[in-house]
Design a protein that fits this description.
Strand 3 and strand 4 form a beta hairpin. This protein is α+β, with helices and mostly antiparallel strands.
């Protein structure tokens, strides 16, 4: 069964699904969408506005965690979810923590570093598309910006709080990694995939499939550099090097 993935190239939520499909060598077609411009396409398909969306045999699945569960059910080998009930519960709790606590704050920080640089923002948001798409996105950015800020909960207070919490996210990551180098047991699981994928919002390891256009805004470079000395930062890059593997995208 060939799957079709509707995704943002830059998003850590979307990276979770790409990684799972690639890890299981599941051939799939990717349709990259442009933030903001994606709404008519996704709403027509699903009745809601968010990506990723995975299409399987004409059925649409939304929400990265629900999609990962569906992928595991249909392609259980190689496994991402532990068989042991206690280990599985721990892995899912870690996934939930990164989805609900870490990812929203890191997304706010990531976009905040771009919002004051409209040209960089347009270059990043439309990377992989043609110059006309970039010009169109840049032209409507004054309208998109307040809508995106509202959607992502970006405010001065929330950004300040998110910036203060970044170190604690790395603290938690470093505490949770076991002697094996993994979160749960001695093998790579959904917990490691989710933790590493979400933290790419800051780390951006070399094996991330869609590098950001260079140069990045100074504020983002400073944020990334401020965490580069952390063991958790190095762990994300190492997990990507060892487990991100080869793309299963069908071109």
């Amino acid at each position: 069964m060939t799957a079709r993935l509707f995704h943002f190239r830059i998003s850590h939520y979307n990276e979770k699904v790409r990684w799972a499909l690639d890890y299981k060598s599941w051939p799939h077609v990717r349709r990259a969408l442009v933030p903001g411009f994606h709404i008519p396409v996704v709403r027509r398909l699903t009745g809601q506005n968010k990506v990723p969306v995975l299409e399987l045999d004409g059925r649409m699945f939304c929400d990265s965690s629900a999609i990962l569960a569906q992928i595991e059910e249909q392609r259980p080998d190689p496994p991402l979810f532990p068989d042991d009930p206690e280990a599985r519960a721990r892995a899912l709790a870690i996934e939930d923590y990164y989805d609900e606590q870490v990812a929203p704050d890191l997304r706010r920080l990531f976009w905040w570093t771009y919002f004051d640089h409209p040209a960089d923002c347009a270059r990043m948001a439309t990377d992989g598309f043609g110059p006309w798409t970039r010009r169109a996105w840049r032209a409507v950015f004054p309208v998109l910006k307040p809508l995106m800020k509202q959607n992502m909960g970006i405010s001065k207070e929330r950004v300040t709080r998110a910036r203060e919490r970044v170190a604690s996210f790395f603290d938690r990551l470093e505490r949770d990694i076991g002697a094996s180098g993994y979160h749960v047991g001695d093998t790579f699981t959904i917990a490691d995939l989710c933790a590493a994928a979400v933290m790419t919002a800051v780390v951006r390891p070399p094996h991330f499939p869609y590098p950001l256009p260079q140069p990045v805004p100074p504020t983002f470079a400073e944020l990334r550099e401020s965490m580069a000395h952390r063991d958790g930062f190095k762990w994300v890059s190492d997990i990507y090097a060892r487990h991100r593997g080869t793309s299963a995208e069908v071109v």
